[in-house]
Design goal:
alpha/beta, binds zinc ion, single chain
Length: about 425
């Protein structure tokens, strides 16, 4: 009888459904939370997971603050007349007045805290222009922070420009909940050129209503009450297919569950697949899920393996959230496959693993292209996040690494106490 990791890797290497599932997810559309595309994707994922042998699957429903932009128009007010600019509303942006917001643009470049402070006087009452940054890098300044800095300094609105030309606007969330806000949109790099000092008119109507999201939870129990939580987020953006972010993570989770489910009699630990929703809305679905776990349930989770944007560049990285004790285990899994794995230790609150880490559960995010700003992952959150940016071999590599890690954990390898020890070191 072959052992679990060997069996899993053999079947993963030959698995053709990995790519066809990825293509199906891309074809389902951008999966914006609350959209028809997201609902159809949840249905497809539920059926797909439910068809795996021995799957006990349930919906974990949670309330969240629903939001849609009903209309959005941005114009540069030239002396000769208004010139329309492409603009994409940021999630949970507030609406403008019905006739729109007219203001001068103040370009502070990247949008650092220092830039906001230096120009605090000029920002007040103006539309502040900042840059979208490559998200998978050390030192990345999240859009939500820039949004809040603009809000705190009395900006009339915020324009987030794509850093790279020729791609179109960017999407993303403001991070705003029910509190005050300012209107915010993503714009293409070209639209930002020469915009400093010009007047613009932004007209946006939005609808806010309480909504219900669905996380999908599927379980295959093991011999003991310890669990490996394998997660990926379902929802994405409306600008494209949300292929890399996070069609790749979903397809890999399905592939790993599919090859492992028939081996469930050999599981020492249980496998729990968690497909979270409203991740793009400040990690809402996983936050509600992780916060609702009892201490005993948290203690029973040996590791959260969170997949988000796992292809688009050949090199994989693990963001280990300060759980130093997980690193030798992850390094070992990579070395056995001959992978050059990058390790990044400081907690990055950029995907669902952060909510597990926040309640003390060892958690890491697998991501491709970390600190590789020229990689295809620069297209995440833009109209270019499409299936053609992913090489089949990259997706396969992510599946093999994930499969190796999860299969070893399910077989009882990896010391849960060691994973929890030594937390706090961040360098
Ligand atoms: Zn993501």
């Amino acid at each position: 009888m072959t052992d679990l990791p060997t069996a899993a890797l053999g079947r993963l290497a030959a698995d053709a459904e990995l790519w066809s599932d990825f293509a199906t997810l891309c074809a389902l559309g951008g999966r914006v939370a609350g959209s028809e595309s997201e609902r159809r994707s949840v249905g497809w994922l539920r059926d797909h997971l439910g068809a795996m042998p021995g799957a006990a699957i349930r919906d974990h429903r949670f309330p969240y603050r629903g939001w849609t932009a009903e209309s959005c128009r941005l114009e540069r007010l030239d002396p000769e007349g208004p010139v329309p600019l492409v603009a994409n509303p940021l999630i949970r942006s507030v609406a403008t007045a019905p006739l729109g917001l007219e203001a001068e643009v103040f370009d502070i470049g990247r949008g650092t805290l220092e830039g906001f402070d230096t120009h605090a006087r000029e920002i007040k009452g103006r539309c502040v222009l900042v840059r979208h940054e490559y998200m998978f890098a050390d030192g990345h300044l999240h859009r939500r922070r820039k949004y809040n800095w603009a809000l705190e300094r009395g900006a009339a609105g915020i324009l987030v420009a794509n850093g790279a030309p020729g791609i179109g606007p960017v999407a993303g969330s403001t991070g705003r909940e029910d509190g005050p806000g300012i209107p915010g949109v993503g714009i293409p790099a070209e639209a930002a050129e020469g915009l400093h000092g010009r007047r613009v008119r932004l007209t946006m109507a939005t609808r806010e209503a309480p909504d219900e999201g669905v996380n999908l939870i599927a379980e295959w129990p093991g011999a003991i009450d310890e669990w490996v939580v394998l997660s990926a987020h379902i929802d994405g953006h409306g600008l494209a297919q949300s292929a890399m972010d996070n069609g790749t993570g979903l397809a890999v989770v399905l592939a790993v569950a599919r090859v492992l489910a028939p081996e469930r009699q050999k599981f020492r630990r249980g496998l729990r697949v968690a497909l979270f929703n409203a991740e793009e809305w400040a990690l809402t679905g996983s936050r509600i899920y992780a916060n609702a776990l009892s201490q005993a349930e948290r203690d029973a989770i040996v590791l959260n393996v969170n997949l988000d944007s796992v292809a688009g560049h050949p090199r994989l990285a693990v963001l280990t959230s300060g759980f130093v004790g997980t690193e030798p285990f992850l390094r070992g899994s990579a070395a056995a496959l001959g992978l050059d794995l990058r390790l990044f230790r400081p907690l990055m609150t950029n995907s669902d693993h952060a909510n597990f880490a926040a309640v003390g559960v060892p958690a890491f995010r697998l991501v491709a292209g970390f600190d590789e700003p020229a990689s295809a992952l620069r297209h995440v959150l833009t109209p270019a996040d499409t299936i053609d940016k992913v090489a089949p071999g990259e997706l396969k590599t992510a599946a093999l690494f994930t499969g190796a890690v999860v299969a070893r954990l399910l077989a009882g390898e990896g010391d849960g106490k060691a994973f929890r020890a030594g937390r706090g070191a961040t360098s």
